[in-house]
Structure prediction request, 570 residues.
Amino acid sequence: MTEVATTFVPGHVTGFFTVDRDDDPTKTGSRGAGLALTEGVTVTVRPATETAVTLNGETVTVEAIERVLGALQVTADVRASTELPVGSGFGVSGAMALGTALAVNDVFGRGLSTYELATVAHGAEVQAGTGLGDVVAQLHGGVPVRLEPGGPQRNHMDAVPARSRIEYVTFGELSTADVIGGETDAISRSGEQALSTLVQDPTLETLFEASRSFARETGLLTEDVRETVMDVGEAGGTATMGMLGATVVALDTGLSDAGYDPQVCAVDPTGATLCPPTDESADTE
Amino acid sequence: MTEVATTFVPGHVTGFFTVDRDDDPTKTGSRGAGLALTEGVTVTVRPATETAVTLNGETVTVEAIERVLGALQVTADVRASTELPVGSGFGVSGAMALGTALAVNDVFGRGLSTYELATVAHGAEVQAGTGLGDVVAQLHGGVPVRLEPGGPQRNHMDAVPARSRIEYVTFGELSTADVIGGETDAISRSGEQALSTLVQDPTLETLFEASRSFARETGLLTEDVRETVMDVGEAGGTATMGMLGATVVALDTGLSDAGYDPQVCAVDPTGATLCPPTDESADTE
Prediction:
């Protein structure tokens, strides 16, 4: 048992997805693909007599974190910080849940494996209704392709072998719970088609093309997003909508070239990880 | 198609393993666990009319690389560099095969997925007789636990959620081909026992303890290695033999504390990855 542990979990922006429900939360999830990002969430956990959770210094209530702490049977001080926009399709809730699980295991000596901890976080996200595929993708990093739904012990993975500078802009929030809690058969059909396309040609260009088709077919595309994606295309770049947010992600300098003032990051190759004990810089709010 | 691509693949030192043979090389492999290391192999690939392979600037013949190039149907200039000792249990041949596969796919636009490329490299290592589990472990990075044998599309993974400074010393080479090509039933029984122990308590301490038992039981322990592992233990540290080499790996400052002058690296959290196109520093011999 250590006094403090810090984890970093990459953001994850989804290009396309299916919704696959099961009575067992660890079997519920989604197939699909997206990008893990070098911008993510840093989570620091300390033992505490009462649980307190902050995000960027402000007290927050995150059901997925409460479920993780409950499953691991601890009370803790959980401090998360991120530069990512919240509620805009970057997987912040999944990152907080996964980062908390990995850090709690380290601080409290719970003796669980990486995949067991990710399964706890995945199940917590599913039960909270805040995500279906982010945790698994964030565990692996890179450009993860989720071939089967469910937690990491069930989720047959692959990946697009590529890295890139990534730019994004966001126009506001979309509710993941509203979309994945509603009628999802048409979404899943479009997601399966996009996955089939990507598996045949696992490149970034095809990921973005399949994601644009998915956004159009499902009607999830908002007007702001549609116009921005078109602007990037007209400037010779490659962009798509980040699911589920009013967010546009572009390869390389796509948004800059189209005259936008985007946030800049890159594909994160690593995935969720404990920060080395000597990394004191991460141990702040 | 780009003009050049560079990859980095971590070294991998195995703690314990089984030997699982099948007529299909992609199903042949091993279960076990080890450490991916921040010291690894950088591989740079360029198109060429005739294939040439160098390691640290010297021309070498590496059957696994030739098999990878053959499977991907290219001729190429392949330049690998590493600070790791060769033939001492750090998975250099597996890293060269995997790094070559990822880089060739990028340079020649082969359109294969990450797991497909790793399957090609795994099959090449198996057929060359130079490794059974390194490629899969190197693909994932961290402290990979291989629960099922075979290539990455078949190899059910988990991991020990931990990072650490790692020290090592090496006293010379052991032949992987001699060991895995010989009588391996007793090795596999010991490996299964070690895996069972680790799965029940997936921590670094248990990984090293199970690995020491494996080294003793299988008779693979050499005298130099045995004495050094004991020295580290007597100084209060944790060490084991790196399979398959006359190599000792220790957690944290275990070898330094015991008076040795070790190489120092750390657990690599990332696994095999393309280097960003702007990383020109990697494009050297």
In short: Chain A is about 35% helix and 25% strand.
